[in-house]
Specification:
two-stranded parallel sheet, 221 residues, six-stranded parallel sheet, 10 strands
């Protein structure tokens, strides 16, 4: 197993990139050559160098040695929608070989690879590929990002159940305070810790905080 982690989420727009970048910074602060990867990214802008995605660029910037964009994001899809729809519109067949090849190159350049998935865990990569297929191909365990907002307990429990049912190893979950007005945060976190057990909470990312939170990296290393 290549040292690394696959970052998935309870939904789209719950801060997977924020958490992935936070993990990269925490790992690099420990002296590890950590790099990020966004295998499939929908919602890309045209540039002189080709299609570019903001999340993938953030991961590239937070990575050791700033690896080539084509390795960080081997499948760049223009439309900002579900990858299956964006790929069909672009006439692209999302397949595993280009992704696993890019991952192998990143792994050879680093000591740890943080791979960010798409949308929520059940969001497919294509008509024939689920994220579980990619996780198995990369041979990575998973960290689940839980966006703290109303409904997150339901989403988190369903996501954990789906991951476990698929036989995916879940090393932990990280709470992301995406809604600063969300009430009952402490009570919600207590329920999540109890209901998602024995999967541990690795930490909480505060809303809008410029500081790197204290994360428990021990289950990842």
């Amino acid at each position: 197993m290549t040292p690394g982690i696959y970052v998935t989420g309870t939904d789209t727009a719950i801060g997977k990139t924020t958490v992935a970048v936070t993990l990269l910074r925490a790992l690099r602060a420990r002296g590890l050559r950590a790099v990020g990867m966004k295998p499939v990214a929908s919602g890309c802008d045209a540039s002189a160098e080709g299609w570019r995605n903001d999340d993938a660029l953030a991961l590239q910037a937070a990575s050791h040695g700033k690896p080539a964009y084509a390795l960080v994001n081997p499948v760049a899809l223009p439309l900002p929608t579900a990858p299956e729809i964006a790929a069909a519109a672009a006439g692209i067949d999302v397949a595993l070989p280009p992704i696993t090849t890019a991952f192998a190159e990143l792994a050879a350049l680093s000591e740890f690879v943080v791979v960010e998935g798409v949308g929520g865990w059940a969001a497919p990569l294509s008509a024939t590929l689920d994220q579980a297929d990619l996780v198995r191909a990369l041979d990575l365990p998973v960290v689940l990002v839980v966006g703290l907002r109303l409904g997150c307990i339901n989403h988190a429990r369903l996501s954990i159940d789906a991951l476990r049912a698929a036989g995916i190893e879940v090393r932990g979950w990280i709470a992301n305070a995406i809604d600063p007005a969300f009430e009952h945060r402490a009570a919600t976190l207590a329920i999540l810790r109890a209901r998602l057990a024995p999967t541990p909470c690795l930490g909480v990312v505060a809303h809008g905080s410029p500081d790197t939170p204290t994360l428990d990296l021990s289950p990842l290393l």
